[in-house]
Design brief:
Elements (H helix, E strand, L loop, with lengths): L1 E4 L6 H8 L3 H7 L13 E4 L13 E9 L5 H7 L5 E9 L5 E2 L6 H9 L3 E6 L10 H8 L2 H18 L3 E4 L9 H17 L4 E5 L17 H7 L2 E4 L17 H14 L5 E6 L2 E5 L10 E3 L1 H10 L5 E3 L4 E8 L2 E6 L3 H14 L3 E5 L6 H10 E3 L3
Parallel strand pairs: 3-4, 3-16, 3-17, 4-6, 6-7, 7-8, 8-9, 9-10, 10-16
Antiparallel strand pairs: 1-2, 4-5, 11-12, 11-15, 13-14, 14-15
Helix pairs in contact: 5-7, 7-8, 9-11, 11-12
């Protein structure tokens, strides 16, 4: 397995010849579109016919999962399932009285397809309000009232059994500082009940770099307490570059490393999954705070934009992330996204720190080269 960065005047036939692989394989593995144009700086995954990776029994085991909405394309889901341990269905909510709120759209087909592929379907619970935003007042009501918790836990268990879910993920964001301990206690109560029935409980954690980190996103998230309360945790190591913020890498490696550095001081590495973004952003320039809003794009789309506009793709070594600029209708754009180099660097962090999982936000677009790398480097845990 190698990564090749396209140079001026390269073409797919010549690259395939240089690496002694069929051109069809190069095209298929990198999802190149006819007429197979390339961008200078584009990173290609080169997989030989007989990859020289470790034997299955010698590879580190990895709990691989990702989040998906019920409106995911069926072909995309089915192409992804063979590489997963679990599929996290996003998302179920709850009311102030502890009644479960089902997602918009039928998710039963996702559960069935996951089961058929030997993948554990996981119900994701969020405190999303009617406006689609995380509601910390809703969290406060829940975590400070045992009767409401009991009702919600009962409805969760009934729904999971009825629908065939095999686990629960708790994704609560913007938890108030005063609810820090109560939230962890709630997660512990949920785990105590769910584990009896064979359901593991995971919790998503905001990307903290210290215990006393300020900010609404961080103050209610106690890494040590939540690491003890849940079976597993996922570090949400993305969204440094976000739709309404200034242009930058979505998951810069230097910042991701700082989060992992702190996390392993509070939580056993074997309980930690690293969050990996499966998307990027396209910002119109100049950036104006409160006005500019970036467009979400996926990796293949980003490369196609660079090709269509004749843009060279650059790579920021510190952030370990690709980026480029282009002009359209008199407006300059800046794009940051993920490619095989940036994802390979994140896999390296997983190995370096002895983490046991990789969690993708989100699976709505199929990035084949990512999964081929994962399969080559790790042995994916299956039920």
């Amino acid at each position: 397995m190698e990564i090749y960065v396209v140079k001026q005047k390269d073409n797919v036939d010549q690259i395939a010849r240089d690496f002694h692989i069929p051109v069809e394989r190069l095209i298929r593995d990198n999802q190149l579109e006819y007429p197979y144009r390339l961008a200078v700086g584009q990173a290609l995954l080169i997989m030989g016919d007989n990859p020289a990776g470790e034997k299955e029994g010698e590879k580190e085991r990895l709990y691989a999962f990702g989040y998906a909405y019920p409106f995911i394309n069926g072909e995309t889901l089915n192409n992804t399932l063979p590489y997963l341990s679990s599929l996290y269905v996003f998302s179920y909510g709850f009311t102030e009285t502890g009644n479960l709120v089902f997602p918009t759209g039928d998710d039963s087909w996702m559960v069935e397809n996951a089961r058929a592929a030997g993948v554990r379907p996981v119900l994701t619970l969020t405190p999303l309000g009617a406006d689609g935003r995380f509601n910390n007042n809703l969290v406060s009501v829940l975590v400070n009232n045992l009767d409401i918790q009991q009702r919600l836990i009962w409805e969760l268990g009934h729904t999971m059994l009825d629908k065939g879910f095999g686990g629960l993920d708790i994704d609560f964001e913007y938890v108030l500082a005063e609810d820090r301990v109560s939230f962890a206690q709630f997660v512990g109560r949920v785990r105590a009940v769910m584990n009896v029935f064979g359901y593991p409980v995971t919790v998503a954690l905001a990307p903290k770099t210290s215990a006393d980190q300020k900010g609404l996103l961080y103050e209610g998230i106690d890494y040590r307490l939540l690491g003890e309360a849940a079976n597993r945790v996922m570090l949400m190591t993305y969204e440094w570059g976000y739709s309404q913020g200034p242009p930058m890498a979505v998951a810069p490696l230097n910042m991701v490393r700082r989060v992992v550095d702190y996390a392993v001081t509070e939580i056993a590495p074997e309980k930690i999954s690293l969050g990996i973004p499966n998307y990027g952003y396209d910002w119109p320039l100049p950036y104006e705070r409160g006005v500019t809003r970036a467009k979400t794009i996926h990796s293949l789309e980003a490369v196609q934009i660079a090709i269509d506009h004749g843009s060279d793709i650059y790579f920021d070594a510190k952030a370990a992330s690709p980026y480029f600029y282009y002009w359209q209708y008199g407006i300059r754009h800046e794009v940051w996204f993920e490619d095989v180099r940036s994802i390979r660097a994140k896999f390296g962090l997983i190995k370096e720190y002895g983490l046991s999982g990789a969690g993708y936000w989100q699976l709505m677009n199929f990035f084949k080269a990512n999964w081929l790398m994962l399969e080559e480097l790790f042995q994916v845990e299956r039920e």
